[in-house]
Design goal:
30% of the residues lie in helices and 43% in strands. The protein is built from 3 helices and 9 strands, in the order H-E-H-E-E-E-E-E-H-E-E-E. Strand 3 (77-88) and strand 4 (91-98) form a beta hairpin. The longest helix is centred in the N-terminal third of the chain and has 29 residues, at 2-30.
Length: 176
């Protein structure tokens, strides 16, 4: 009976250590993932939408957003959900909730395309004045929900601030 207790205790200890090592390995792997935005034509799209509104033609209801996701880890990960808020010179212009799942293969770069639904109710005059003022800031901030295994799901924050065509701030892993 004593030998059985020792065996069970040893098996539980080894299993616990292996499980903790697995979880820390997965957490390290997710640090090797980064996100970059590759579509920065927002100012032009908003400008043409405002011109369409002024001329009485229908405004575009969606703007394409393409995110480039780099997976430098050795494991496949799955993007479960993406949520972003988008601001144009401090004016909220869109919210994005995309629940389409995407698989990121190991050591790869993937392009995720999202159609962003514009939410410009009541802000068209402010947007027009901002467009006239010159270089505008576009800020995209939100989360990607990433799953590396059955056990782990992580919220992966992303923030991008662009002025003109220059990226002022981008935070989401280390893209190299």
């Amino acid at each position: 009976m004593k030998g059985l207790k020792v065996f069970i205790g040893l098996a539980l200890t080894i299993g616990g250590i292996a499980f903790v090592k697995y979880l820390t390995t997965q957490a390290k792997l997710l640090k090797k993932i980064c996100v970059r935005s590759t579509s920065l034509e927002w100012r032009e799209v908003l400008s043409s939408g405002l011109q369409a509104y002024i001329s009485g033609t229908p405004m575009p209801q969606t703007i394409p957003l393409e995110l480039e996701v780099v997976n430098d880890s050795d494991v496949e990960v799955e993007v479960k959900e993406m949520y972003f808020d988008i601001y144009f010179s401090g004016i909220h212009v869109a919210s994005v909730l995309n629940q389409d799942e995407a698989i990121l293969m190991p050591n790869s770069v993937s392009n995720l395309e999202i159609d962003v639904n514009l939410d410009l109710a009541g802000d068209l005059i402010d947007i027009g004045l901002e467009l006239l003022s010159g270089d505008n800031e576009i800020e995209l901030r939100g989360n990607l929900k990433i799953q590396a295994s059955v056990y782990e799901e992580y919220n992966y924050p992303y923030k991008l601030v662009v002025q003109g065509n220059e990226i002022l701030e981008e935070s989401s892993g280390k893209c190299e």
